[in-house]
Amino acid sequence: MSSAAEQEAVQEGRAPGAGLPAQPAPVLNGSPRVAPAVPVWPGAPTPLGARFRTGPDGVSGTNFALWAGGAESVELCLFGDAGDSEGSGGEGTEIRVPLTELTHEIWHGFVPGVRPGQRYGFRVHGRWDPWTGARWNPAKLLLDPYARAVDGDFTLPPEVYGHVRDWPQQQVADTVRDDRDSAPYVPKGVVVHDDAPDDEWTDDRRPKTPWADSVIYELHVRGFTKLHPDIPEELRGTYAGLAHPAAIEHLTRLGVTAVELLPVHQFAHEDHLLRRGMKNYWGYNSIGYFAPHAGYAASGTTGQQVGEFKSMVRALHAAGIEVILDVVYNHTAEAGELGPTLSLRGIDNRGYYRLQSDARRYTDYTGCGNTLHVVQPHVLRLITDSLRYWVTEMGVDGFRFDLAAALARSMHDVDMLSPFLAVIAQDPVLRRVKLIAEPWDVGSGGYQVGAFPPLWTEWNDRYRNAVRDFWRGALPDVRDLGYRLSGSSDLYAWGGRRPYASVNFVTAHDGFTLRDLVSYERKHNEANGEGNRDGTDDNRAWNCGTEGETEDARVRGLRRRQLRNLLTTLLLSTGVPMLVAGDELGRTQGGNNNAYCQDNEISWIDWTLLDDPDWRALFDLTARVIALRHAHPVLRRRAFFSGRAHSADGLRDLAWFTARGAEMTERDWYAPAATLGMYLSGRDIPGRDARGVPVTDDSFLAVLHAGDRPASFVLPGAPWADHYEVVVDTSQEEQGDTPGVVHRAGAAITVPARAVMLLKVG
């Protein structure tokens, strides 16, 4: 516990340590452990982290380098195998090696004989003065921010906190230093082999799917594979499970071109979840930006997870599927001032985090307690080094940045000329991969949809809202829907951006599944243990007349039709569609719209749904429409529509029609409407193929009808078409493979209630 002098200081309202004698090194398990016999050579300040290599005179060993700007000294701590120590909590003998070389605020040293598989951490010495943001505490073993692998779990007992977590006066608890050793209770970094450069990740070995041709599938490594009956049980829930042919077969049959993996950086579980016997399932609580999360490894956690992850990427690439990582560089698992001391806080709290004018407190643009100070050069270096590592050494093809607006802030405001965005734009590795922004954070001015620079694509929540509202009958008119279906030119037609700047989605991991979107209007998050207070109340959902599951055949049929409508609308829209794993199977979370802590059947995909003819038909429709999208460039345009006639017959690349078969007027856009016709001309597609030949395609008419009764729709006549062939009709459970019914131009057809009809123009 803290010293009596420190306790007295707190009671008197002054900082512990002010005017007190220097604090001695903590006593660990009864006596300090030092190993003066371990040789430490000067080594090098770069690269950061632990790198196994050949040193002077051909001696192999590991170079350790840690940026710790304001620290007074740094100790490298090496750990033996569990069970070989005396009284060390089963964590192995700890050998502490001082790093005495200091170059540009980087502490470094080369330790001969240290090989891959060695577990290690750091103890960093410095002042304890939370009032000024200084939170050094050498009693706490710290994870290397550059660790390539992590062994062990974060369990967060009191010893893991730099302050006395259970101090009676909680308002000042963060100021009272806890001198208990945390080493027995925290994971360790692991030295890994650096693979020799090879050609596995060169561009000609990657799928390199153009943005306009991409179909993204957001999935959770564990949840996607945990219940799959054709994946061996020992591989379920792991990277190896996702690499299994049974998992990849589903992806290829569906036709997606990229998987977007929920966070796979090493993450920790929050204290409030652990106290309730729960864990963070989604993983948006990163603590190791170079390490694949060890909990998803089937092969081992002392470096084997690195090779397993690479093998997964290779298997997906071989199937033509890109790998995009959902990354969380905006905050870390150390939370606010009452959070644990795991890594950056103990290395240099003031150097890594944004602090308020009251330096005890953290600036929180993320809602998670802290925000990384990306303006600082060493923080920016940490992030960009991590990104390049995952591209060049782990083989990934892109990133989706959680709360990207927090990364784009300069000192306070979101700034599209911020250091982070500027560095990404000029980086020869990063500017060539797929970059997706979640274009908001929780701070003032944080909503930035449409504002990111041309290199970026963005999650478009305005697309989500408009499509949900149209199909539940809540749009006052169809103006917004027209923009969203045609690529959101109102948001992205500037600065050279293209329609694929818009990542279109109806659902994401955060919120209702697609099936729950048509089955529930209210969240049902009781299982989370937070009194149903968590999760959004703005669901824009319609339960089709009954809340929750029902045996009513009419309601069940209507819900399946709504699912077909939502999926078909998404896949026919201009932009990049993103599906959520399991939506094509009718996956449900029982109305839980915030299942971040549900590592169980609530979140895992139920593969038995494929055995149900109703849900198998939904999968077949989804695959059919994705195949249509791949086959027809008019459905995946690389440039915005002009809406102007390009020939004497008056035919335009995009035209909108009312149910009367007449082109929409300005007045029609402002009038309430449940029916909208969208004509896409395949004759007027900008661009040429690889041989310079102009791209042409079939033309299509998509009719969207959200009304609860059938409607008459007059098919446009000349010059638009001579006849129309029905390709997709979402009123039908089974689409079949035979050509559809053919209608003559000018005919009035009946569009079933709540349906999408896609007709090919002849």
Short description:
The chain has 762 residues and is α/β, with parallel strands linked by helices. It contains 17 helices and 29 strands. Helix 11 (461-471) crosses helix 12 (479-485) and helix 15 packs parallel to helix 16.
> What is the CA-based Rg, rounded?
29 Å
Overall morphology: elongated
Oligomeric form: single chain
Compute the average pLDDT. Answer: 92
Q: What proportion of the residues is helical, as a percent range?
A: 10-25%
Strand content: 15-25%
Q: Which strand order do you get reading across the main beta sheet?
A: 12-13-16-17-18-19-20-21
Number of strands: 29
| SS-based class | alpha/beta
The separation of the N and C termini measures 81 Å
**Largest β sheet strand count, sense and barrel closure:** 8 strands, parallel, barrel
Distinct helical segment count = 17
Residue runs with pLDDT of under 50 for 5 or more positions: 1-32, 83-90
Task: Describe this protein's structure.
- The chain is built from 17 helices and 29 strands.
- The relative contact order is 0.08.
- Residues 525-540 have a biased composition (Basic and acidic residues).
- GO terms for molecular function: isoamylase activity.
- It is an enzyme of class 3 (hydrolase).
- It comes from Streptomyces umbrinus.
